[in-house]
Design a protein that fits this description.
The chain has 210 residues and is an alpha+beta fold. It has 6 helices and 11 strands. 21% of the residues are buried.
Length: 210
């Protein structure tokens, strides 16, 4: 039998435990960068084309690593606006400067992407149509601009590496091996500042959620 004092104590402890749970959850949410949350809520959905890869090299351990078509310098060099960015990528060292190439600063730029004419399933990737050294002031309704960072010959968009839960690895491995050296479409959202966050990706007809 619970005494009256014990019942009151239990009733008081329930709100405290509930509040503690909420505080823990709030703390976990707070660890997510505010910018990423804002982009996820308000960004424009896009689809990016990855480069063909060996499925045995794509999934390493618990992590999936992508290389994108718009990270290929040969692709970027053909786009309008590249002539204004190229001189900034490999600055010539000053006379008497003995600093290592590892000390070279990174260079940010923006790739203007345009949506495909048709909606398909799986979705078609957005097409790069131009590059700019700053965020464009005017974009068409079917366009957006994603920020890239160039450093030491590599272009990154913050969408390259993802953690894959163990319970999804077997199925994903099978899918990758069946498809072979094929490209993968990655879904993301891009904010009005060019920052992007991942949503999921397609392997053939199968979609995986991040």
């Amino acid at each position: 039998m619970y005494t009256a004092e014990r019942i009151v104590s239990i009733r008081k402890s329930i709100p405290l435990r509930f509040a503690a749970t909420l505080l823990i959850q709030a703390g976990l949410i707070a660890t997510i960068p505010a910018q990423a949350v804002y982009t996820h809520l308000t960004g424009k959905p896009i689809v990016l084309q990855t480069l063909p890869v060996d499925p045995y090299n794509l999934l390493q351990g618990y992590h999936l690593t992508f290389s994108y078509q718009i990270a290929n310098l040969q692709t970027l060099e053909k786009l309008p606006g590249w002539e204004t960015i190229a001189p900034q990528l490999n600055p010539q060292p000053k006379a008497g400067d003995s600093s290592s190439t590892l000390d070279l600063p990174s260079t940010s730029f923006y790739v203007i992407l345009q949506s495909p004419d048709q909606i398909t399933q799986p979705p078609q990737p957005w097409k790069p149509v131009a590059v700019s050294d700053r965020y464009p002031t005017r974009l068409e309704p079917n366009q957006t601009a994603i920020q890239g960072i160039y450093q030491q010959g590599t272009v990154r968009y913050g969408l390259e590496t993802y953690y894959i839960p163990e319970d999804q690895q077997v199925d994903l491995n099978q899918q990758l091996q069946q498809v072979g050296q094929a490209s993968i479409q990655v879904e993301a959202k891009v904010g009005t500042d060019g920052h992007s966050v991942p949503l999921g990706f397609w392997v053939d007809q199968e979609r995986y959620q991040f």
